[in-house]
Amino acid sequence: EPDDMFRAIRHDYPILGDVIYLDNAATSCSPEPVVEAMVEFEHRYRSNVGRGVHRFTRIATQRYWHAHEKVAEFIGAEEGVTVFTKNTTEAINMVAQGLTWTPGDRIVTTILEHHSNLLPWRSLEKQGVTLEIIGILPDYSLDMDEFRKALEKPVRLVAITQASNVLGNITPVQEIATLCREKGVLLLIDAAQAAPHMPVDVRTIGCDFYCFSGHKLGGPTGTGVLWMKKPNLIPLMEGGGTVESVTDEEVVLIQGYEQYEAGTPNISGGIGLGVAVDYLKKIGMDKIHEHEENLTNRLIDGLSAIERVRVYAPANPETRIGVVSFTIDGMHPHEVAQRLDDHDILVRSGFHCCQPLMSALNLPEGTVRVSIAHYNTREEIDLFLATLKEIISQ
Ligand code: PMP
After folding, report:
1. Domain named Aminotransferase class V: which ranges (predicted)?
2. What confidence category does residue 231 fall into, taking pLDDT thresholds of 50, 70 and 90?
3. So what's the ipTM on this one?
4. How are strands ordered across the β-sheet holding 186-190?
């Protein structure tokens, strides 16, 4: 029974003992091996990285470096540079600020985007860059005709999410990557919601930049990743740790991730992130995806059968992840979330940092959002559904 395997790992997450945690799209829980790796750093070898020769710094440097290797492997990156960041937001800003823009440059993005994959591009408008926003169809899928049309004129970069943090739809990044390659357009993928929930491979996709958050895949908070195919971004910051040599005449930057990680990094966080991807890999991303898909189907079917509930989800199970938005007629989303919290069920409510999408969907109060991780169970989904029914009928 595949479900039993996922039940067995719950002892790695003591935090799940008291609540039903269904806010995984905001941040997910760290398994014990991740927490232990962070504590081990504090207890046994806390020191700086890339500096000095003593034993602590040697261990820390080796493990911190190795964590980058593990993350690169996790996303199938055989080339390019894998940089540790604070989060997805920082990764996207590093690209927006690290490319050189010319007035008239066009960027294509979509209405599905999180503010973190919209505002860094909008801020370039003051440099004369223009932004085109592709819409969605009534079934919530991207309007690919509009997309293709937008690429008929010269475009510098496409920035798109691989999975929506509101509607849960998976976007056709493979097809978009092919279009971008044909036209010589740079492609940035926001994988904040995709990387934790499905097998991903930057080689197969063929993108230029791949951004995601460590804290949404069981890694420590304050961790994220920017993978870039070619290390030709201008670093957002310079300083200690980024240089090979500094003389009066010149500064030679290190040709690795170090050039993009100025100053002392989040060392225990980075090491913890390496453990988190190992942990997921051991379970198997395909198994995780399948388990979450089963739970999502159960959740959407259950929600759709409740009176007064409106579900905003793509119909095809193959194109969705375990992020499900809904509203209840006559109840504010925050009230629903508060009432669920009274029953120890934790979900998100509001705009989910996607206000343009909420306007497009005409949802002025936002939605309630349930988001699933691999450690959630059928029983939790059923209890959530039963509790929601009870709240609605009161
Ligand atoms: N993009 C998407 C699709 C997200 O869901 C999120 C987090 N909600 C972000 C970007 C931003 O992630 P972070 O807060 O870790 O920077």
Report:
1. 20-384
2. very high
3. 0.99
4. 81-85, 224-228, 209-213, 186-190, 157-161, 106-110, 130-134
89 touches ligand 1 (CB under 6 Å): yes
Mutate to test the pocket of ligand 1, among 84, 86, 88, 217 (most ligand atoms within 8 A of CB): 88
The predicted pLDDT at position 86 comes to 98
Long-range contacts of 143-152 (CB under 8 A, 24+ apart): 144/172, 144/175, 147/108, 147/176, 147/179, 148/179, 150/108, 151/108, 151/179, 151/180, 151/183, 151/185
What's the alpha-carbon Rg for the chain, to the nearest Å?
Answer: 22
Backbone angles phi, psi at 102, to 5 degrees: -120, 140
Atom 4 of ligand 1 has which residue's CA nearest to it?
192
Instruction: Please name the residue ranges forming H helices in 99-172.
Output: 119-122, 144-150
For residue 226, the surrounding DSSP H or E stretch is: strand 224-228
Ligand 1 site, residue 88, Cβ cutoff 6 A: yes
Burial status of residue 289 (CB atoms within 10 A of its CB: 0-12, 13-18, 19 or more)? middle
Q: How many CB atoms lie within 10 A of CB 119?
A: 15
Distance from Cα 114 to the centre of ligand 1, integer Å: 7
Q: How far apart are CA 35 and CA 137, in angstroms?
A: 43
Closest CA relative to residue 198, chosen from 351, 49, 373: 373
pLDDT at 2: 64
- CB of 24 shorter than 6 A to ligand 1: no
Tokens describing residue 129: 């860059």
- Give me 156's structure tokens: 């510098």
**Phi, psi (degrees; rounded to nearest 5) at 300:** -65, -40
Backbone angles phi, psi at 359, to 5 degrees: -65, -45
Summarised one tens digit per residue, pLDDT across range 302-316 is: 999 999 999 999 999
Closest CA to 184 of 146, 155, 144: 155
Residues 70, 227: Cα–Cα separation, whole Å: 13
Provide the residue count of the chain. 394
pTM (2 d.p.): 0.97
Best mutation site among 84, 90, 116 for ligand 1, i.e. most ligand atoms within 8 A of its Cβ? 116
DSSP state at residue 30: P
